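I hope you will forgive my troubling you with a question about protein structure. Here, with my thanks, is the record as I have it:
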Amino acid sequence: MNWRYNSAQSHRLFARRAAVILSLFISVMHVQAQTQATMNAQARAEFERKESQRGWLAFRDAEAAFAADQLRGGSMAPTIRYETMAELT
């Protein structure tokens, strides 16, 4: 179970880093938007950012379900699921 926990930690760390890099990239695009093509690209990037957030939520929920599944049928399973969701969020 320890390697699975480390794997989940790695996924969370990667997701956080990706979100920070993406938000910095979008911030830079807002400052430099001076042509219609750039504004179109900026709008597209903003849309994709919202799409990636939906994907991240699916990832978070899957990670929480996986963690809870380790205690399948146990009374602690819901607690582990919600604690994992809170930690990832």
Q: What stands out?
A: The mean pLDDT is 82. The CA atoms of residues 34 and 42 lie 10 Å apart. Residues 2-88 form one domain.
